[in-house]
User: Which sequence fits this backbone?
């Protein structure tokens, strides 16, 4: 019997510059390859009708996530009205797209339209979806990340999926349970996600590591050795996706107490006017590997990003994580950070509570590394069994 052919569904959008998303996709592909499988990324080239676009908007409003629509419209407006900002974002976008072209696109197989997508699914032995916030209530109608396009006879696996919310809207619970029951194995990135799967379906999910954690710091260091970023002095690295001004204030306080300059990646998710004066150095020509170099070589890391936090742990950095969402909010996404910290044994003092100098708190790296190895081994075991 020949090598099994694996179809892989990852979070991908041309022009999207989130570093974590690119690294997640690459890490999952790399790990499946290392397990000895032939892997191909299923790229759905959509041709949505006006009715389908309107259905997506209505679904977003019903889910209480209308802010996603307004944020996208604001983003388009900001690019149109601010030439310097638009030019800088193009520099970043070009850098990230060049990385994708080298690391991701060689694995891609395009399917234009839903019929081609469904028919194409039959050629794979297994189709795996993962990871990141691919199962948000917004994605339900697309029939893509939930693998509703996949033929019934094909084995379906979810790896480190995340709902991105703490609860599913009442009107979506039945449909969510229905697509979950089509899976043969489900690994969730957070405990909160496992609880949703267990409650809404006949499945029992397992909590597994984010794909970026399937490669250890040695493997990532090998990946980034060709980066042109070569920091020469101590610095504070700031990577904020949200608009929390308290985080910027804390960073400047740390700067004043340490004397270290701030390297900041500005305007990651949206244009933030206050960030025009934030940071001593604000590079835009930064690809995902450069992003990792900035984390690895920093004296301190301040972030509101799950993946920046995860890589800070991998590289044994002194770091501080800021919540990006209101705690307890149904649409908030802080649970993934809480889950990771609890599993690895990272103390709550590394979640900002008003005192940035808690960043100096000692971390028990022996304990964290032991927990990390256990999580990785259990996750690889899940992946190996799910694909066998």
Assistant:
């Amino acid at each position: 019997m020949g090598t099994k052919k694996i179809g892989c569904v990852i979070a991908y959008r041309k022009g999207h510059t989130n570093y974590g998303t690119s690294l997640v996709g690459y890490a999952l592909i790399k790990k499946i390859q290392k397990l000895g499988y032939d892997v191909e990324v299923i790229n759905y080239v959509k041709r949505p009708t006006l009715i389908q676009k309107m259905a997506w908007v209505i679904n977003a409003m019903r889910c209480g996530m209308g802010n996603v629509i307004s944020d996208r419209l604001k983003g388009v407006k900001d690019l149109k009205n601010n030439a310097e900002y638009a030019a800088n974002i193009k520099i970043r976008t070009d850098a990230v797209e060049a990385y994708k072209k080298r690391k991701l696109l060689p694995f891609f197989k395009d399917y234009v339209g839903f019929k081609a997508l469904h028919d194409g699914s039959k050629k794979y032995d297994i189709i795996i979806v993962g990871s990141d916030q691919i199962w948000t209530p917004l994605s339900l109608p697309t029939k893509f990340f939930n693998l509703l396009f996949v033929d019934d006879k094909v084995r379906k696996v979810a790896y480190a999926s995340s709902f991105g919310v703490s609860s599913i809207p009442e009107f979506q619970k039945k449909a969510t349970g229905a697509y979950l029951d089509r899976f043969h194995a489900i690994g969730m990135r957070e405990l909160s996600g496992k609880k949703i799967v267990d409650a809404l379906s006949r499945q029992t999910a397992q909590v597994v590591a984010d794909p970026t954690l399937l490669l250890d710091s040695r493997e990532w260091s090998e990946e980034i050795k060709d980066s042109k970023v070569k920091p020469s002095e101590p610095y504070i690295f700031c990577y904020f996706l949200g608009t929390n001004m308290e985080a910027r204030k804390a960073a400047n306080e740390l700067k004043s107490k340490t004397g270290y300059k701030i390297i900041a990646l500005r305007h990651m998710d949206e244009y933030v006017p206050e960030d025009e004066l934030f940071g001593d150095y604000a590079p835009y020509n930064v690809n995902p590997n450069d992003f990792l170099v900035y984390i690895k070589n920093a004296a301190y890391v301040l972030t509101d990003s799950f993946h920046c936090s995860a890589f800070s742990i991998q590289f044994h950095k002194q770091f501080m994580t800021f919540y990006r969402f209101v705690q307890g909010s149904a649409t908030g996404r802080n649970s993934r950070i809480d889950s990771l910290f609890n599993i690895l044994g990272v103390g709550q003092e590394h979640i900002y509570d008003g005192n940035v100098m808690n960043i100096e708190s000692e971390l028990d790296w022996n304990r964290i590394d032991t927990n990390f190895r256990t999580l990785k081994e259990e996750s690889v075991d899940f992946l190996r069994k799910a694909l066998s």
Summary: The chain has two domains: 5-214+374-387, 227-369. DSSP finds 13 helices and eleven strands in the chain. Residues 227-369 form a domain with the Rossmann fold fold (CATH 3.40.50.2000). The mean pLDDT is 92.
